[in-house]
Amino acid sequence: MFKTIKNDLPASIVVFFVALPLCLGIALASGAPLFSGLIAGIIGGVVVGSLSGSKIGVSGPAAGLAAIVLTAIGTLGGYQNFLLAVVLGGIIQFLFGILKAGVIGYYFPSSVIKGMLTGIGIIIILKQIPHFFGYDAAPGGYFQASSENTFLSIFKMVNNINVGSTVIGLVGLGVLILWDKILTKKAKLFQLIQGPLVAVVLGIIFYVFTKTHETLSISGSQLVSVPIPEDATSFLGQFSFPNFGAITNPDVWIVAFTIALVASLETLLCVEATDKLDPHRNVTPTNRELLAQGTGNVISGMIGGLPITQVIVRSSANIQSGARSKASAIIHGFFLLISIILIPRLLNMIPLSVLAAILLVVGYKLAKPSLFKIMYDLGWKQWIPFTVTVFGIVFIDLLYGIGLGLAVGIVVILLKSYQNSHFLHIEDESNGKHKIKMTLAEEVTFFNKGAILKELDSLPIDTYLELNLLKTRYLDNDIIEILDDFLIKAKERNIDIKLVSKRGTEENPKSFKEFFRTKPKSSLSLS
Predict the structure, then answer these.
(1) Which residues have a Cβ under 8 Å from the Cβ of 96 and sit 6 or more positions away?
(2) What is the pTM of this model?
């Protein structure tokens, strides 16, 4: 780990600059004390980073859990009761790891997963619009019969816009877009100094220079508010602790299981995505990751922090900055700790509208309009579970949305795949080189992801793989993606691939996606 410190230290600085505003912004979106987001960021970096088997993954408070946290705090009747649910959720996650449930992510179709992330992105956008325009009322539910639900807050905001908050919010949003689309491609300096940090600095400068301005001034209720410790005792007094007296409340256990399930899913999905982004193609042990995340959530909940997952925004920034080991994630956690000790007054000058701008960009990246077109073009087998999941999450509840999407996805698969979808694996030796013939069955669906991944990962170096699809009439898009991802590992391990199907035979195909693409369908009928 110390051998790569010259790569990891610069990367940790970049990740810190990305994480600081996101920790505060996600706490804001969650309706939790802003200090709780910083606690989660510290624990995610120092504790989870130390225990995790991921070399480049970074953990912290997740935007994907913001909707659950916001609803749960109100449902459970207080933040201390919610912290108990976080602790219990961490214990459940730890048990998931012991039970080797790290493969659970493979049994969710990608359409539902993408629908979950898109729905979360839409909720984040809706909930940040009032903060962006300086409206103080905290949005509540979605379409529930509430006096202050999300959509009602947006309507009320129209007559309560704060000019100063709106101006700096628009400036921050412009900076983020400019940084993301143009400047980061122009020079390495703009990759080192991240857009969110620049937006936050401009927000602080704007606040300082407009404090006495009649029109542009921003009130204290529209600024970050973290406690300012005068000494060690007051610093320790900032931490909240769970109310263990609520352990008999069944709602606490429901929220705990929800946190454990969604946090585990989001972590496993992020692990899969991060491993794909990693230029060195390190493979993260998923069961160990669940043990690390569970431990982190127990500790975070015990001292007042938000739930933790591995997060793609910080992980991708870590990779792009050249991190080589887990030292980067750990050091960034210590930087967060130092910031809340040394510069809390500076943090309290950050306008909430700037954090809202950062979260609007996060939400947009999760729910890009282009994704809807992509999913539609992939065919009804992907489009219907995707849209059901999105609408279920936005208009009902996150867990309901995922459940509805999964139920529809299973029905779609059962309608199409009524036969046994196992595959055969035959191996022999010839001329000192492994020759393996893998024959896929007539129907191959996302249920086979885990088994196929295991078989491909177990192939030895210097192998000649014949992938036979002559009998395969239905090959799910999830499987095609797995095969396509395997091409990178195959080159690194000197594995030659011969693809045999009714469409022809090809040696070492450049892309399985291109080979099977006759028209834009997610699940390709090969007959």
Answers:
(1) 102, 104, 260, 264, 290, 294
(2) 0.66
